[in-house]
Write a structure and sequence with these properties.
The protein has four helices and two strands. The protein has helices at 21-26, 34-44, 49-53, 57-71; strands at residues 4-5, 11-12.
């Protein structure tokens, strides 16, 4: 099941395993170029930098709203949980 559906019908499923902690911290670094941050955010959404930039303003807002909502607690979403062995 997708996390958000854009007006174009494109279904987005966020994968927070697609971003490293170093890249995540860069999102909050005012000196990091927008292109780098946007590329990393786009990758979490399973798209390219150009696809992110070419979205309508409304779709971009929807995408980012859902991105930040899910980023607050990425492990709350069962699809982002890694399998954990139940016995050793």
């Amino acid at each position: 099941m997708s996390d958000v559906t854009l007006s174009t019908g494109k279904e987005i499923t966020f994968d927070f395993y697609a971003i490293t902690f170093r890249e995540w911290r860069g999102l909050f670094n005012k000196d990091e170029a927008d292109e780098i941050s946007d590329t990393n955010i786009a990758r979490v959404g399973g798209m390219t930098y150009d696809e992110l930039l070419d979205m309508s303003f409304a779709d971009h807002h929807l995408f980012m709203q859902e991105f930040w909502k899910r980023a607050r607690d990425p492990l709350k979403d069962p699809k982002n949980l890694q399998s954990v062995p139940t016995s050793l």
